[in-house]
Amino acid sequence: MTLSVEQSAAVYEKYARLLAEGKEDEAGKYIGEQLPNLPEDLRNKIIALMLNQSLIDEARELETIHGIQEAGLAAAEKLEELKKNLKEDK
Amino acid sequence: MTTLDGGINPEHPTSPVELRRAKIELYDVLGRVRHHGLDDERFESYNERISAGATPEELKAVADELNRLEGSTGRLHEPRTTAETVPSAAETDETPPADVETLPTAGELEFEQGPEGFLIVEEAGTKRKPSVAEEEDIIEQYALGKEPKPGRPKMLARRLDDEALAELEGTPAGGAGAEVTPRAPLTLDERKERLRARLNAVKGKMGEAHFNKLARFIDEAENDDQTRSMHQTLEFYEPRRRRRGEEPPPGPPRPDDVPEPLPPPPRPPRPDASDAIPPPPPSWESRLDIKKFKRVRDIGPGGRWAGGFGTPRRFFYVHPDAPRNPDGSQRRFTEEEYQELIRQAGESSPDEPTVGRLHRGEAPRDPFEINKREYIGIRPKSLREIAANERDQKFFGEFMANLIPGESADLFARAMQDGDLTERERKIVLYAQYEYTKRLSQWEKMSANITGKHVEQAMKRYPGLEAAVRLNDSTGNNFAITTKVWKEELMHIAMRKDAGDFNEVYESQMKLAKLHETRRFKNWDGDVSALCKRAHVDSRDYDAVFNMKTMRGRGETSKWLKLNLQKDLTGFAKITGALGLTRFKVHRTMKEANRLERKKQERWLSPTSWTLRDVNKHEGTLARVMALTIGEPEKLRALTKAAMRNEEMQIERDAGPRTRAGTNAEYATAARGELSQAQLQQTFNRAAKPAAWNTWSTAQREDWRDNSWDPPELHHEGEERRVGMWAQIFSAFKNWLFNDQKKKLSVA
């Protein structure tokens, strides 16, 4: 069942109220529940935004993993160097 | 008693436990061989072969080589009889049984101290290297004066043979049949002589006071116990040289398969579960904490002023944890020693610039590292404080956006959104807090001193600036608008990553404020005012009226002054002025102007000219940056627009994300139904319509409503800087709803 413009306006107002109260999780849950009923063009816009956000999150996660891996490699190289130095000292 | 062959027999399969046991035994042998002169390279090679040895054959091969090096023929570390130490050719290939007990047999062996170390002289006159046990016997009996152990041969010392002596002293050898005489046990004096020689050899390893003490102890030694303890003391210095991996003293080359005999007692390596070889213990120098070094001025015996004026000062370094000198004083480190220790520690000198680190291939210092010395007196604003203040939030966001272009703005937005920051990002935010607070405080201090006078001075120096300033300001409002714009611009300059311009302006402004308070500047300013009053001109026009630098300029000034004075005369004064009395007034004014001009000219012996020169310089800096900033095309456009519309100047900038309070206010307005049909209709009815609205058709009005109407009431300040996915969804929802709802509004 697709909501009319007036009903969508009511959803918008409730969503805004939840955000104003700082209940972001609740607002997200609410918009998720109402998403299938929203008019198609609006629904598509919101889905695109969500997808974009998830892509950004994933990229950031990958970047973090990459950073950790690089740090690990650097540490391993340093260990190798230390080991080599120890052998040379002997 | 265990033999290697007893544990590892290549003919039969060997269990891993036996292999492991054999490896441990081989490590033991290797450790002993190493302490008798095996070089590091070969030691490493054997070590690797043992650890990599997976079959009995491989270990057997290593064992054979080590046994040969050790001077035995298959035994590992049993005490050997005299007969065993000189094995016959037939015995060499035979492996003794595992449980053979060594019989205590007394005998005598002759040895001599050759250039390559000890040599055993056999009955046939042949010489060979002593085994480890024989070498221990020589040391104990000859150097320490002990009696032979039960079952061990007595070692008799012979003098150096002629060949070796010739090699040492550079004289021709005496021939093969040189006389060999057995040597009697050493007397106390001989022992002392040997000790002295040994002490001299290690003189460089100890301090002078310590050396003298040992030398005195040798001189005063009365019995063998005392000389023996001295030997033990000196051993402490000698073996260290070998352990540290230094080169042994030069000598003739040795065959590789013969170990170099050395006096120190064997120190077998600990057979560890792992194959790794423990590193040598670090020297005490390397354990010193570099940061605890203290630089001390070296005041010689002559006192602080010794050497007279101009004598360069000398310094040394001390360390609280370094061992003290024998007299109890702190050990001194020279500059070279200090730098060498810093280099060894892999640290940079505290005063070393970044370029030095780059030159050595090291990473440059972290630009976001907080140097507390740069922020003395600065208490960084908390993020909460910044977020609560609209101005701070705006400028801090701008600063963050400029700090790491393309990265830090997103970082700040994420910090506001979900606080998900890495350790480095937190470091950057902390740095930004410090730097922002510092720059803000500088800006506040500086902006309090900026007045319309500065704008006026800048206009005099840069006439092009006047066109921009006069758009909005005049003397009547004391250039208030431009002053405000300039202050705000300075804040934006301060928020740039490179605050070079801002620092320049800040320093100039602060110095200028001080200079204006000086007695010399006040006197000069007072004189200028008095002169202008006498000449009936405004003091602001001083530079325009008085051109005293050239003869022609002075002539024109004089003429202008005369006319200026005469035009104000009335009645009788006008008559007297025409008769020439004005000339006296002009003459006096010109004389005074000349005096002021001379004051302005920079001279060595004129402190006022120094002050005026500095004032001129700093005013020039301020004017230059002001002209460059306000003279930018973007600013000029904004100033012109603001002047023509009688509005405040608006320039869009790359600011940070919105404050939480601002966003919440927007949400609250939305929740009250600002986009409901009724409220939107009211907004539309109130909106300013085009002038020809009443003449437009309905279609024209609807077109305007749908395509042009965009009420500013619905756009909150900074809404484009909303942060986070929920805010983005809110924006999308709002736009969609507005565009849909407005189509239903009545245009009547």
Put the structure in a nutshell:
The complex is a heterodimer of chains A (90) and B (748). Chain A is mainly alpha-helical.
Write the layout of secondary structure elements.
The complex is a heterodimer of chains A (90) and B (748).
Chain A: H1 5-20, H2 24-34, H3 40-89
Chain B: H1 4-7, H2 16-34, H3 40-52, H4 56-70, H5 82-85, H6 89-92, E1 108-114, E2 117-121, E3 127-128, H7 132-143, E4 154-158, H8 162-169, H9 188-201, H10 208-220, H11 224-243, E5 294-297, E6 315-318, E7 332-333, H12 335-345, H13 354-359, H14 383-388, H15 390-403, H16 408-417, H17 423-447, H18 452-461, H19 463-472, H20 480-494, H21 500-516, H22 519-534, H23 542-545, H24 551-567, H25 571-600, H26 607-630, H27 633-645, H28 660-671, H29 677-686, H30 698-707, H31 725-741
Parallel strand pairs in B: 1-4
Antiparallel strand pairs in B: 1-2, 2-3, 5-6, 6-7
Helix pairs in contact in B: 2-3, 2-4, 9-10, 9-11, 15-16, 15-17, 17-20, 18-19, 18-26, 19-27, 21-26, 22-25, 24-25
Question: How would you describe the overall organization of this protein?
Answer:
- The complex is a heterodimer of chains A (90) and B (748).
- Chain A folds into two domains: 1-38; 51-90.
- In chain A, helix 1 (5-20) runs antiparallel to helix 2.
- Chain A has helices at 5-20, 24-34, 40-89.
- The model of chain A has no long low-confidence stretch (mean pLDDT 85).
- In chain A, 86% of the residues lie in helices and 0% in strands.
- In chain B, 54% of the residues lie in helices and 4% in strands.
- Chain B has helices at 4-7, 16-34, 40-52, 56-70, 82-85, 89-92, 132-143, 162-169, 188-201, 208-220, 224-243, 335-345, 354-359, 383-388, 390-403, 408-417, 423-447, 452-461, 463-472, 480-494, 500-516, 519-534, 542-545, 551-567, 571-600, 607-630, 633-645, 660-671, 677-686, 698-707, 725-741; strands spanning 108-114, 117-121, 127-128, 154-158, 294-297, 315-318, 332-333.
- Chain B is mainly α.
- Residues 1-13, 72-105, 164-183 and 239-281 of chain B have low confidence and may be disordered.
- In chain B, the strands form two sheets. Chain B has a four-stranded mixed beta sheet, covered by helices on one side. A three-stranded antiparallel beta sheet of chain B has the order 5-6-7.
- In chain B, strand 2 and strand 3 form a beta hairpin.
- Chain A binds chain B through residues 5-6, 8-9, 12-17, 19-20, 22, 24, 27-28, 31, 39, 41-42, 45-46, 49-50, 53, 64, 67, 86-87, 89-90, and chain B through 40, 44, 245, 277, 279-280, 422, 663-664, 667-668, 670-673, 675-677, 725-730, 732-734, 736-737, 740-741.
